[in-house]
Every structure is written in structure tokens, then in C-alpha cells.
Design brief:
Strand content: 5-15%
Number of helices: 8
Radius of gyration: 20 Å
Structural class: alpha/beta
Amino acid sequence: MTHPNDRHAGDREFATKLIHFGSEIDEATGASSVPIYQASTFHHFDLEQPPKHDYSRSGNPTREALESYIALLEGGTRGFAFSSGMSAISTAFLLLSAGDHVIVTEDVYGGTYRLLTTVLNRLAIESTFVDMTDFEQVVAARRPNTKAIFMETPSNPTLKITDIKRIADWAREQALLTMLDNTFMTPYHQRPIELGGRPGAA
């Protein structure tokens, strides 16, 4: 039970959010931490009213808790958990279509570079790699078919720092999607969504 004097979860300090994120008590059992649900399928008690979870590939209580937790720490509205960083990045790039162009941090993670240059290029998704510490290079890389900007900051492996707010503000003015790999900093040290100026901007 929440004490009346407790602040809203969104107002708590980061370390407190790590412990009390709002869904840490399991509703079904009262467990003080979310249990690991290993079931792949969930029972349908009524075919006219399907359950919240029906198949773990599309949703699972344990994964849902993690996704809610990360969204809270990032300051986002929704989180999605993947089996790896590259599966998350690949899925984000699949928001693009054949003929689209993306501006990318020049020294981006090797897996991201290979995805763009050996897989997505075959799907007619074009990439231009620029030094994002130089804002003018970013602006100059924009084409009529540019749809997104992908930042990684600090970059891997040279640790170059991109001005997230400046790039995100410009991208929004150009109606471009902003994507950012925050692996190195995590939301404890860097909060791209806040720097993007609005929820969902980064």
C-alpha cells in the first residue's frame, strides 16, 4: 500500500525508482518482486474475452514488468525489451522503408554499421555516416529522402560526444525520426528523451 505522503513514482529519485517502480509486487501472488513466468502460452477462460497475455512471444508478465521499469527510468511512455541490443536496433531501423535515407554517427557500433551497409542497403535503405560532433556535417548530409537520424553518444569505440538536444531539435524541425543508442551511458547518466524535448522524441 502506498503511503499518502509518498511522492508519485515519476517524481522519485533515480535510486528509489530502481527499487520502487510501481509494479514490483506481483498482483497474483503478493510476491515482493516480479516472478519469472516461464509459460509460453496462457489459458483462455472465455473465448469472447481473451486474456491480457495469450502467448509469450507477444507478451509476458515478466517482460512487461521489465519494459515498464525501463520506460520509467528512461522517462518514456512505453518500453520494449529485446534479446539483444542489435535486435532492438534492427527493429528500430525497420520503421524505415525502401528508398529512405538515414544520417548516422560515423563511428557507430560495428554491428550497427554492418547492419546498415550489408543488410539494409540491400533493402534500398541508404545511410550517410557523419561526424556528429560537427553539426554542419549533419545538416549537409540531409537529402530529400532522409527520414531519420541515428545517434550513438558516446560513440563506440572513440567516445565522441554528440549534442543530443541540438540534433534532436533540428531533426524535429525537419520532421525526421530521431533514434539514439544509449548503451554506454544508460538512463542513470544520460536521458535522451528529455534532451529530445518531448516524450518519444529520442
